[in-house]
Design a protein that fits this description.
By secondary structure, this protein is mostly helical. It has a domain of 115 residues: Actin-binding Protein, T-fimbrin, domain 1 (Orthogonal Bundle). It has eight helices and no strands. Helix 2 packs across helix 7 and helix 4 runs parallel beside helix 5. The longest helix has 17 residues. The mean pLDDT is 83.
Length: 189
């Protein structure tokens, strides 16, 4: 937790415990290994939460990562350890992920997720998603391969034939009747 926050209790503590339970040390270590390989920075690649947080919290390594993939992606990397400067780095990283590498919004994180150690799993998900997208830039990728589009072309005749078939998704009303219903009678439970 951040030094500036009171310890969570009650429902907030339970919710934080549930969020933390989704964190995978193996996936985090894989992400840090990938970051180390691309950036060439001498970072500790242990996947425990404390190390993952300490390596990435200021956003400098993350900005260097996207600059190593695509030079000039982040214009200015703030080396200062002041909170708002570090959060600017994190925001710049996420913006580049979305706008340059087409990482979906739902697979990114907010800067407070990392800076205040709220949701480190979201950071792992973002790094994996970025890792899938960078193959086109000649970089090694991580995580499962992204699916390719399977566009199908149907002729007009096939489209008309498909409109005449009643799908099983519409259900069936065979055997349904209103026998036994008497108007005005109350429902007995």
């Amino acid at each position: 937790m951040s030094i500036n926050r009171a310890p969570k209790s009650g429902f907030a503590a339970e919710a934080q415990k549930k969020i933390n339970s989704k964190y995978s040390e193996e996936l985090a270590a894989e992400c840090l290994e990938w970051v180390k390989e691309i950036t060439g920075e001498p970072i500790n690649t242990s996947g425990d939460m404390d190390n993952f947080y300490e390596v990435l919290k200021d956003g400098v390594i993350l900005c260097k990562l996207v600059n190593a993939i695509k030079p000039g992606a982040v214009k200015k990397i703030n080396e200062s350890k002041m909170a708002f400067k570090c959060m600017e780095n994190l925001t710049a990283f996420v913006d580049v992920c979305i706008k340059t590498f087409n990482v979906p919004n739902q697979e990114t994180f907010q800067s407070v997720d990392l800076w205040e150690r709220q949701n480190l799993n979201a950071v792992v998900i973002c790094l994996q998603s970025l890792g899938r997208k960078v193959g086109q830039y000649g970089q090694p990728s991580i995580g499962p391969k992204e699916a390719d589009k399977n566009v199908r072309q149907f002729s007009d005749e096939q489209m008309r034939a498909g409109q005449t078939i009643i799908s099983l998704q519409y259900g069936s009303n065979k055997g349904a009747t209103q026998s036994g219903l008497v108007m005005g009678n109350t429902r007995h439970m």
